[in-house]
Structure formats: structure tokens, C-alpha cells
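Worked example 4.2. Below are the chains of a multi-component assembly; read each line carefully before continuing.
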Amino acid sequence: MNRSPAVELKGITKIFGRIIANHDCTLSLYTGEILSLLGENGSGKTTLMNAVAGIYYPDEGEIFVDGKKVQIKSPHDAYKYHIGMVHQHFKLVDTFTAVENVVVGLNKKDYEEIAKKDGEKYQGFNLKASARRISKICNEFGFKLNPWQRVNSMSVSEKQTLEIVKALFRGVDILILDEPTAVLTPQETEKLFDVLRNMKAHGKSVIIITHKLNEVLEISDRVAVLCKGEVVGDILTEEANEKILTEMMVGHKVDLNIERKDIPTTGERLEIQNLNLTGRDGRKILKNINFTLYGSEILGIAGISGSGQKELLETIAGLNRNTAGTIIFHNPKKEQPVTFFHKDIKQIRELAAQNKFHLKGKKEPLSLVGISNKEITEMVNNEQIIFYEDEIMNLKGKKPIEIRDLGIKLSFVPEDRLGMGLVGNMDLIDNMMLRSFRKGKGVIVHREKPEKLAKELVEELEIKTPSLHTSVKKLSGGNIQKVLVGREISSRPKVLMVAYPVRGLDINSSYMIYNLINKQKEKGSAVIYVGEDLDVILALCDRVLVLRDGEVAGILNCRETNKNEVGLLMTKKKKEDEEDA
Amino acid sequence: MRNQEKAKTPFLRFSLHVSRRNDVPWWIALVVKASFIVGALLLCGIISGIFAEGRSDGFIMFYKYLIEGTFYSPNTAIATIWNASILLIIAVAITPAFKMKFWNIGAEGQVLMGCLGAAIIMKFVAPNVPNIIALFLMLFMALLFSIIWAAIPALFKAYFNTNETLFTLMMNYIAIGIVAAFSLKYKATGDTALGILNAQTHAGWMPELFGYKYLIGIFVIINLVVALWFYLKYSKHGYEIAVLNGSVRTAEYVGINVKLVTIRTMILCGAACGAAAFLLTSGASHTVSETVVGGRGFTAVMISWLGHFNPLQMVLYSLLNAIITTGSSNAAANLGYSGEVASVLSGLFFLLILVSEFFIDFKIKFKLKFRHKEDNNQPPAEAKPELEGGK
Amino acid sequence: MGVIFESIRFATVFLFGSAGETVTEKSGHLNLGTPGVMCIGAMGSAIGASIYLSMCGGVGGTNAFLSFLFPFLFCILFAGLAGLLFSFITVTLHCNQNVTGLALTTFGVGLYPFVTSFLEANPVMKAGFSSISHKYLTHVFPEQFYNMNDFTRLFFSYGVLVYLAIAIAIAIAIIMKKTKVGLFLRTVGENPSAADAAGISVNRYRYLATMIGSAISGLGGMFYLFDWCSGAFEFVVDAYGWLAVSLVIFTMWKTEIGIAGSLLFSFLYIFPGYLNFSGPDKKLFELVPYAATILILVITSIFKLGKAPAGLGQSYFREDR
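Applying the procedure described above to all three chains together yields the following C-alpha cells:
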């Protein structure tokens, strides 16, 4: 193999505000090789490659192409050095045809170069000639693409094909593909790999950003692993196997001092049965999910990113419509008094009409017909109205607000903190009442309680903020997360769902979050923890559910399993797929 | 090809790198804003100095006439404050819509329709009923007309996601057409327009306070502005708008009905525009014509956006704009150039305030690089490492 | 017959205005400063004419071609500069397009009468403007030719700008559909990040499209001053600027439809006068174009036809994420 580096990155650092996306990354790509860039979600793979493709300009560091230092300030610069990138979100114009999308951005010089390469006459801007060339490229590499088809009528795989053809049309020597197989069927993936091998045979270099180990082993010559924004190492594929790569990707086992209390679970909280979710493009995102969640336990959810973790939580929280299956919630109310914390008077009357209550010390059903609101209020406050049984409700198809109105304490700490959990422009106090601002009479919002809560949280969780009236977007990532988690916990949830709660946080803040989650478990909450760091999941959670391509690959006991077992479950190809291929 | 690149590199090269920031201390923002405002006022004087006919003191005299035309006597001062208040109330009226990212640039039409509603009562009902009832009916009709005009685009936005910028813009001109037609239809024969209504009886006219015409109007507007500010800051509705300002996704997640809030907020906008229209018709114009709002709806859009939902900033911009337009007309009359200078200076003023936003919202890294003649591979020397905007 | 001549002639204001704004909007810029830009164009042509007149020392000795060229060049220069100002504030300084446009309109609509007020005192200019307008600008072909019959009158009795407007509208339509530049420009307007990734300089296209578009829109102002008003500078073009903006929407961003659309708008404006419509009815007639535009807006949104450039009104900053 020719060992001259086609591209070299030296000490690349990119910072977004307070977040360091890449720190001192050094990486080489050799001519005629396929390099896999492996790493967890958020490890900075895409940002690093965007710096090569000219989307982001690095804050520090140097890029060398063919041994010469270059400045890549724009995608145009990147093409100049024959570097092309296929982004995860395709950069295509929906209303244009394929050929129009391909030739967008090509200038006279580019056409001349293309003509020279092909040994044809220079034709300039000529859609028909370009379409012929596209067909030629398709034949050469084995694509199927109609140059005159409009993008808005194409499937995802066709769009990806178009993106690759677009790059090849420009004669790129270095092609970067960001998660190319995430949207493909196994057959399509095979075809893509054939194309990549073909490109390699033509002397081109390929970088493929991925986290699917089997694909890495199948396609690449070398693997570079990124972890937390830094390049942790690279290895020749022939020397690697799934186990070694899993270890590199998940890191060596770290002893985390996360305490895990062994407390008995307190009965079922959430029963998920045959849960399915279909995305907007018709793709199945969740497939037949089944599991049961118990009180006083933390269920970890592991999986390579995009396996449906986020969607699973959002579906339970009532944010997705296109679902099938059941989500059953058990409210442990048997022989417990009803409170205004959960129900209002109207709901209590409705439940009483269904004979759900009895009076304290009495057996016969309680009827509230003819009893005034004032009297009921008094009875509830004296804890005299008692439930017969646990409340069992199906949450499927209910919106977040409806779930709330049922008196169900379901808290959700979403991945997108400022886009969904909090409002960046609002201050701490206002963010406290995001889910409860309707409480209280009248048209005026009542800020006394939220203010008290904010004050308590700032003290208890050591949130660093200039004042309670500071916009949360001005706080650091860790403090923003503390505000969010603190608020969600303050409502004393029966079920707490957290998605990537420590992403971007420093060690101290992370431990604070782990402790908060542990406390909820002690209080009897059922917790679902979605995380990317397997060490944390195994140390913190009681059980771990591994998701793979929207399916449950297995549920393991965290006390008995280890990282490699989980890692293999996450990445292992399904049996049927292997038979298909 | 890469060799050519090198040859092209100039000896001296600028590099300007701009990045967004959101952590500007308030005092820097204040200094930047203030210096741009002062700059805008200086520019006005310079323009005056250039165009003042046959005299060399055009620059300094501009400011004399500016003050004289706006705060010379109690009457002119009150008129200036009245002009500013009308701008302010319209600007504050559309602020809730802007806050929920609904681009309502139809304030002109919404106010004008309100004026029409008020004028209809003034013409046909006011002469026959006690003044207090006339005023009440005028207010009612002004509110009704303005609300309808504001709600139509909101309904289409909520249900069909029709582009509200273009919709509200077009609604302005339909309102102008309707009002012009009305004015021509009911004018006295021989007149060119509707003219002052009830000039003798003063039916439907806002009474004067302490002998000053606009005082009641100014007083009402101050109260309205405070009320609207209170609504945005302390009401549950205002809270919902603030959440929508953050993100629609968050709003949906916490159970806010986005359609409902859109329509409700625009109805409120319409109502506030209607109130402004009522005050304008009963307190100042006493008639309706297509120029009765006179572009203040558009000016208010700029004031509202530049004010960043902050009423104090809007007060400042309204006042400054009123001073510049009224004052420069006075200067023009005395210094011998066209009164149209008012619109020119007002436009320049807003353009400069707009530009100042950039220096607050963005961080500018400015680099000067020298290429070394002998050795091209040496890293370029950096002369000025960093110059932050606003500092 | 007269109403048709007049309609064709007056359509030129809308055609220039909307063709220019179409070019601008295709790049993703919603320039609400178009009325201001048209005024600035008119102002530029007035400045050009007065410079030429003072060079010739009065009405005598003016050359027909130069009488056209001076106002024309100065018109596109000043209108183009207005476009440059808009682009600088919205692209380089990342300010809001709507607010910038409105401020530009305020500025331009004031600037035109302010500048022309200095011409008023000079009687030479008044006569000179009228003389300039009667060279190429109101009738480009000789009278004995176009006055032969109704057919020649229908097609050849107009000023040079009328033909230029139609030529520009057709040229824009062809450029947008058939050429590389048109394709690139549409990409910038539809999906700036795709354009950027394809190596197109979004900022440069937005700058150039807005400047060229503004120059074309500005010619509408020149037509209004020198053709429609025969050089009488007391009349201001701004009201038709908004109609030009609405025409862009009405024609769904296609200048070839714009030729017919501008005729329709102009007809609706001219027609009531021929029917001896009294004031109020005429005014109601005049709002029909706006109502029709709203109808188009509503229909396209209900049926999700999505003809507007997808990136319209959005600023683009590569590192935003």
C-alpha cells in the first residue's frame, strides 16, 4: 500500500461557545485506503470532518493535503483539494432534478478539468451532457439513478446515491461519508460497500464515520477511534476484532465511584407492550418493544446512537403520534388517600362515580353525589378518601398535557435541553414553572412558588448563576442540566426518564446528577436512564436494556454483566441479516 | 493548480472571522447603542450642513431648530410627545406578535381599519348621541375593525401556515384602498377628501385637558403601554408567548396550543391597534383618509423589532424618531431645503440602529496577515490578533 | 384601444419592479425596500439627466442616445447601490431583512423628493427633463412609422424602457431556467446550506442578485419619471413599489408570468379611469391586485404548492447549528 498521507490533521481544536467539540485532534488518511472513524455519539467525529470539508473553520490546528499546508475555509476550498463530504443531512435542493443537484456549484474550470479527465470535448454547462456523464459514473460504480428524477420523489437511499454521485462527478479523491448506513437497508449497505471498494480500487481515499463495528471490520483498512472530542488511537483493521474495537470505543473499564444501593423494587410502574413507532418517512423506528419497569429501580438503556433511544422516551412521554402498542402505567394508590396533588375535584367526582374510593375505615364504595365541593375538599385534606386499588392507565396516544391532567407524575429530562426541556431566553424562575404555569387562579402567573423552588435548587444543587433572573442560556452546560433535572425531580415523579443527562458536563456535575438519580430510586421512583457511557450505565443502573435498530436486543442485569457483553449486543448483526446478505 | 494558489496570495491579507455570541454585558450593549444613536444624530447635522442653502452654519443650526421645532413651547412639546406616543402604542401593540415570532407587518392596515371604524361612528352616529356614548361606540367599532383585520392573517397562519409577512403586508394596502374609497364616497361635494368631521359640534372628539389637545390621549397610551407590558410579563398568556419565543417544540411539549395562542395574540394586537386608532381619530385627526396613519405602522414595526420586547428601548426610539422627523421638518423650513429630509433622516436613523445590533450580537475576529516574501512555508505573522466588537 | 395602449405602457413600472424583486427573492432575500429602491432609481435617473443637461448647457444640443444613456446609467448605479446597502446590512451584518427593507423604503421614499426638490428652482431642468423624455423614452420609433395603423400603434408606439422591460423579463426567465447562473441562484434561494456545500459562495450570489435586482427595480422608477410622467418629477413612484412586491407573489416567482401579471395589474389600474369610474369605485378597483395576491398566497399555502424559494427571508450563517 502506498503510505503517503493524502490528508493530515494536526492539533485540530474546535470550540462552540463553552463546549469543546474537538481537542487537539491529529489524524492521517493515506491514499487509497478506507478509514473508519469510530466513536460514540457526541464524540466529535462529525465536527472534525466538517473542519476538513470546510463547513467549520477550526479554532486551532493545521490541515495538510498531499503534504502541503492548506486553509479550508469553505466547501469550495475543500473541492479544490478534491475533498468531498456526504453529510448525514443531505445537502440537496428538493425541487431540483438529480442532474441539477449534481452540477450545482460547478464552474467553467471544473468542467474543463472534467472534460480533460474524460478525454472529451469541453461542453460547459450542459444538463444533457452532464446527465450522460452521471449515467456513465453510475454504470462504472454500479449505481442506479435517474438523472431527471426530482429529489422530492426520491427515497433516502436514492438521495444518498445522488450525494455520492455528486462528489464523484466533481472528481473527488477523498470522500467523507457521515453515517452512510444509518438510513440504508442491509442490501443497500452491501451495494454501498461495493461502491466504496470500487473507489478504493480507483485510488481514491474514503473516510467513513460510523459506529457499527461489523461494518467497520467489513469495509475499512484502518480504524481511528474518537472519544470525547479526542483521537484515542488508530489500528489496522486486520489486527482488530469486535472485542478490541469495543474496548477502544467504550474505553478501558474505569472504576467509577458511583454507589448503587440494593433496595427491593416496589412493584410494576410501567409496562410497555408491543410498542411500535413509524417515522414520517415510513421507516420503522421502534419495533415491538416489550419491557416492564419497576419502582425503585434504574433501567439503563444502551445502544449505538440512533437506535431509537430518544424516540422510545419521547413516545412514553406522549410526544409521538404514529404509535401502536400499549404503555400501561401503574399508580401505586391501593389503600392510599387521594390528594389534590394528583387530582382535582372534578376528577375525584368522576372516579367516585366509578366506585374507585371508599371512606377511611369503611368498606362500601363512597358516593360523592350531593356532597358539596367544600365538604369534599375537607375530606381530601383530612385524607379520608381512599383508593380501593392501584390506578392503571394506558398512556398510549395521550399528549403530555393529558398525561399530566390524569395526575400522573411522569418526568422527562430530554436530550435537547434548551430546545425542549428549558427555554433559553427565560430566567431560572420562569423555567421552573414551564410545566406548571397554569396552576393557580386568575390570569396572572404566580411566581412565588417557582421562585422558592429556584432558590432551593440553586442552594441544594450548587447551581452557579449570577442571580435567579439570569437567562438559563447564559449558564454553563452543567448548571443548565442541574436546573432541568432539579425541576423535573421537584415534582416528585413516579417515573423519571433522563436522556444523556451528563453529556457535556464535567465530572463534579456528573456525579451530582448521578446522586440525584439515585435519590429518586431510593424514594421509590422508577428511572429510565439513557446514556452513552457504558461504565456509567453498568455502575449506576440495576438493569440495562440494549436497543439495536429499534428493537430490544436484550435486557441484562448490570450486576452480572460486563461492558463487552453489552457492547457486543449493541453492535452485533442480527442472524437474519447475515442470512439475507 | 495548488501552485497557482500560492502565487495568488497577496502580500497583505485581511481575515475577518465573525461568530455569534450571547454573553454581552449590558453596559457594552448600552455603549454601542448609545454611540450609534449619537452617530445617527451627528449624521443628521452633517447632512443639514451640506444642504443648507447659502449658509455655513447649517450643521449647528440644525440642532437649534431641532429643539425649537420639538420642545419650544408646551404645545410643540406635547405634540412631539403625542407623535412619539402614537408610534409607541403601535409598536407595543405588535410586540406580542413579534415575541411569538409572528411577523405582523400589517400594523398600518390594522390601525387604519380601526380609524375607519371610529370615523364611521363619528360621521353617522356621533352628531345624534351624547358625546360619551359616541366615544364609547367609536372605541367599540375601532376595536372591532382592527381585530378583524389582525385576526384574518392569524387564522390562515394557524390553519394553513400561510406566510404572514406577505399576508399582513398586502392587508395594509387593502385597508388603504377601502379607507380611500370611504373617504371619497362620503366627502362633501366640492371637497377632495372627507375633511374634518363635526368641526362645529366636536361630536366624537376627545375632550381637551387643561386646554391641551393631546393630553388625554398621551395619558391613556402610557397606561395602555404599561398594561401591555404587564400582560407580557406577568400574565399566563404572556408566559405562553415567551415559551413560544423560545421554541415551538418546547411549547408543544408543555401543552401550549400553538394555534390558539397565535390567533389570541393577534386578536390582542388588533385590539391594541384599535385603541391606538380610536385615540388617533377622536383625539387628533377627526377624520379618516388613507394618509391618516402616515406610515407610522411601518415605523412602529421597526421600533418594535429594534426594541427587543423592552418598552424602555421602544420609548427611546419612538421619542427619537418623533424628534428627528418633526424637528428636521422645522430645520428644513428654516434652512432652505426640502421637508422630505425628515423621511430620509428617519430611514438613516433606523438603518444605523440596525447596524449597531451587529456589533452587539457578533464577535469579530480581525486579523491582518503579512506574507513573507522569501519563505512561503513560514506561518504568517499575525499583526492584530483580535479585536472584539463593542470593546 | 386607448386603454390597452395605456395598460401595456404602464405595466412597465410593475414589470421592472417585480422582475427585479424576483431576482432578489430568488437568492432568498425578501427586500421590502423595493418601493424605496424604485424611488432611488428614479432619483438616480434624475441626477443623471441633470448632469447631462448641465454638460450640454441646456435643452439645445442634447443627443437622443446620450439623453437616454445618462439617466439609465445613473439609475442602475444608484438603485444598485441601494441593493448593495441592503445586502451589506443583511448579509455581512446579519441583520433582519424585513426591518432593513422597511428602513430602506422610509429612506428612499424620502430621498427622491428631497433630491428633486433642488431641481425645482431651476426652470432649465424642468424643460430639459421634458425634452429628454421625448427623445427615446416615450417613443422609440418614429411617429410616421408607429402611427400607420392600430397594429403598429399597439406594438411600436412605446418608449425604449417598455421594450427593455419585456426583454429583461424574458431574459431573466431564460437565465433562471436554462443557465448555470440561474441554477446556482435558485439553489442559494432554496437551500443556502446545500449551495454552500456545493461550493457556491452564498454571500456573493446574494450580494450580486440583490444589486442586479435592485438595479432592475430602479428602472421602474426611471420609467415612471421619464416615460409615464414625461419628466415631471413631482410625482413619486412608491405606491407602485408595493404592487411590484405583490406581483412577485402573484406570479409565483416567474417573470414570464410577470409580463402577463403586470399587464393585468396595470389594466386594473388604468381601466376604471376609462369607465369614468368615480373616486371611490376607482379606489376599490385599485385594491383588487392586492386581494388577488392574498388569494394566491392562501391557495398556495392550503394546497402546499410551495412556490416561494424555501430560504426566503432567512439569513444564512454557516456556523449556526
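Take a moment to check your reading of the output against the notes. The two ends of chain A are 29 Å apart (CA to CA). Chain A touches chain C at residues 16, 53, 55-57, 74-76, 78-79, 85, 87, 91-96, 100-101, 103-107, 124-125, 166 (CB under 8 Å).
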